Every structure is written in structure tokens, then in C-alpha cells.
User: Which sequence fits this backbone?
């Protein structure tokens, strides 16, 4: 199975806590179609307690076997990129994964230690994925399996339901 990679930068927004007992919330807000020259974990902007951070870059890997999933994403009406983060402090947050596969993003969402967010897909990334799907997608027709008819009286059971005493485990052992 072949693959193609696209390096995307991740931007996140940190909001202040709602109560004095809460902690701030860090959420991915977008991806950059190219990795910028900015160092990871850099504060880009901040006003009224809301901060925008560049968290770093990650490779989005497109596999030829997943073109059906990418196609589902493209025709969904809201094509998205799923960004997966670990940690809530922007200075130390790790970008775990960036994917265009909605089912992979859904799989990451079940881990409560991760922050998973679907962000809008940039137009250039949308064209890249659409070209990849157009080039590599192979439609596999659905084929319903049919059961072969069996005569229940003609079948011999593979093993008896109740074992005889001599066939049971340990029956061949000598007792001393």
C-alpha cells in the first residue's frame, strides 16, 4: 500500500478558565497548509485572555487503502482535518496526529487523555486530497456472501458434546 505525506502546521487557541477553580481550555482551531518558519510552541497573538498558539507541525499521511474514507470526508459538506493533541499547556503540548480520515479521528476521540478536534480543511489541502483520491481510489463492489445449503442430518459432529471418562484431561494418568 503506497502513501503520500503532507506536512501541516497546527494552530490552537487557549481560552481563560470560566471559573477560578477551572483551568484554561486549549483547542485546535486550524491547520496551515505549509509548515511556517515559526518555532513550535510560539504565542502568535493574545488579547483579553485569549491566546493563539502555533503548536508545531505534523505529517498527514494518506494511504491508498483509505481513499474511501477520504472521499467520505470530501463529500460530507464540511471537509475537515482532525487534529489530535496531548496536554493542555501550550508550551508543552504534543501534536499526536493530523489526519483527513474521519474514522481515524473518531478512533482517537475515545481516548480521554487526548484533545481531538475537527478543524476546517484549507482549500489547497482539499485539492491535494481530491487529487490523491482521484488517482488511487479503486471501487470495491459489495459482494453478499451466500450460505451453501447444508443437510443437518448428513453432518457428523466434530466432537461429542460430552466427553467420555477416558477422553477427559488427565484420564490417562496413573494414580499412586
Assistant:
Amino acid at each position: 500500500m503506497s502513501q503520500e505525506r503532507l506536512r501541516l502546521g497546527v494552530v490552537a487557541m487557549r481560552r481563560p478558565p470560566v471559573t477560578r477553580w477551572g483551568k484554561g481550555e486549549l483547542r485546535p482551531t486550524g491547520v496551515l497548509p505549509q509548515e511556517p518558519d515559526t518555532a513550535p510552541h510560539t504565542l502568535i497573538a493574545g488579547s483579553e485572555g485569549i491566546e493563539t498558539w502555533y503548536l508545531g507541525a505534523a505529517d498527514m499521511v494518506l494511504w491508498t487503502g483509505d481513499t474511501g474514507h477520504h472521499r467520505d470526508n470530501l463529500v460530507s459538506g464540511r471537509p475537515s482535518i482532525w487534529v489530535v493533541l496531548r496536554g493542555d499547556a501550550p508550551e508543552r503540548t504534543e501534536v499526536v496526529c493530523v489526519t483527513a480520515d474521519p474514522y481515524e479521528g473518531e478512533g482517537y476521540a475515545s481516548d480521554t487523555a487526548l484533545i481531538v478536534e475537527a478543524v476546517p480543511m484549507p482549500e489547497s489541502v482539499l485539492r491535494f486530497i481530491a487529487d490523491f483520491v482521484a488517482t488511487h481510489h479503486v471501487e470495491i463492489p459489495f459482494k453478499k456472501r451466500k450460505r451453501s445449503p447444508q443437510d443437518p442430518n448428513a453432518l457428523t459432529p466434530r466432537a461429542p458434546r460430552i466427553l467420555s471418562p477416558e477422553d477427559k484431561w488427565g484420564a490417562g494418568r496413573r494414580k499412586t
